[in-house]
Amino acid sequence: MTFPLDPYTLVEAGIADRLRSALKADYFTNPTTSDVQEWQVTDNDSELHRGANYFIVTRPGAFSQVTGDYNSGEIQTIEWETFLRLYVRYQEKAEQWSLLKPFRAAVLRTVLKYRFLGKITINGDEIPEVLAVDRVRSIQPSEPASYFWLFRQQQESGMPPNFMYQPLRVVTRQRVRFD
Could you say which of 17, 36, 42, 110 would form a disulfide bridge with 22 (CB–CB 3.0 to 4.6 Å)? Predict the structure, then answer.
């Protein structure tokens, strides 16, 4: 099994896998086919056009590096930022908040409940646990919830928005060995 050269990849994949598996029954399962829509938690913004009502798009943020107390200096402690961009589609404006708030609460509850990341899958390879990830340190909104138009033409033509959007900032601590 080949591990990615960028240790952050393990953190982002671990968060995405945890959210996908914990929220699939309520938010990421197609009610018609009972299939889990894996693409609803992704790092690919273009998946939004596929028609589901709930999406999480992951984005890397900044990071800080703190040298560990190890004699060799090869192991570093890094705190990674991952932005979770929550998208909720609504049909009627009156339902926007009643759809966004429970989804956001479910994401918060999942991240806080499962602060230690478990096994993840990258390109079909199952990794038993996210290597050297100590825990999710914090989660907070990075800006208020706002409206989102899927297509610029909708906004330009005066159509009302059809999504609510809110980014959340997750900070995860990982110990990394650089050989």
Answer: 110
Maximum separation of any 2 CA atoms in the chain, in Å: 62
pLDDT of 38: 85
CATH number for the domain harbouring residue 25: 3.30.2000.10
Three-class SS of 47-79: HHHHCCCEEEEEEEEEEEEEECCCCCCCEEEEE
Residue 139 to residues 33, 105, 112, 118, Cα–Cα distance (Å): 33, 12, 8, 18
Residue 2 forms part of a structural domain: no
Give mean pLDDT, residues 19-30: 90
**Is the residue at 1 inside a domain?**
no
Structure-token pair, residue 146: 């706002």
Domain encompassing residue 138: 8-177
Considering the domain boundaries, does residue 168 fall inside one?
yes
Neighbours of 172 (CB within 10 A): 27
